[in-house]
Amino acid sequence: MKLARSPKNPILQTTGNGWESKAVMNCAVFEYEGKINLLYRAQGEENVSYFGLARLSSPDTVEERLSTPVFSPEPKNKYESSGVEDPRVTKINDTFYVVYTAASRVEPIPYASDLYEREGWRIRVSLATTQDFKVFSRSGVIIRDVNSKNGALFPEKIGGKFYLLHRISPSIKLATSQDGVNYKDVGEVFGPRQGSWDSFKVGAGGPPIKTKCGWLLFYHGLTSERVYRLGIVFLDLNDPTKVLARTTDPILEPKESYEKEGLVNNVVFSCGAIEKNNEYLVYYGAGDKVVCLATIDKEKVLKWAKKQVGKFKR
Predict the structure, then answer these.
(1) Where is this region: Disordered (predicted)?
(2) What is the Cα–Cα distance from 134 to 92, expressed in whole angstroms?
């Protein structure tokens, strides 16, 4: 089971605008005003990340792209001094929840067990909300006091609570909240598999998609050689800590030149997927440099999931 790349890839590239002149990547995808929209991460030569917005006329054709960022790091926010990264967008009722990573540099701790601390990074899952992508309300850091990223909010409450996936390296965790702002971890969902393509660490892609077989989650995994690939898991609808199915082999891995060569080589990294016309449209960053699209038939995925549920062993 593999994703099929769009022949138009890459669908989004850098421009002469300073804030997005070095890289565009890792976009959220959502529908707004009848169109597919991409909220994408961008970098200029100063290596600070911003969010840009593009509207599509078809799944792989850009119709309109704003020339200025729609979301920027707060100048006095110590957590965002290196930028805002890797947005994931979830719509609940009439509100769009933008979960993102706030990034900043700190003094490295050479012998720390945490890789980010050793490399001098402080990363925090953060939240902003909007109804029009013009005005945002910031909630700030929502997973506190620990390096965490890849936050993805479920599109509906479960048992009256908000559910959020995030990654404390190397595994995907689950957190819940009554108010959507203050989150508490409830446990690990799944982690790396020894000897596999996702043996080093794993992280959530976009927000989970509800299906009759469970919550569909596209996720990334990598080896110690830092080759990023994509896979699929299905989670229980009522208890997302339960993994019902997981692909043995990757559904997408770096093969094209724009995936194998970039600011970071050998990367395919998704922050969002949607269902459209009986397909899953998976948008992904390639080589930390450009934005691409790959698709897969919905029924093929669900047919595979039905066969796996019940016999899957964690």
Answers:
(1) 66-85
(2) 18
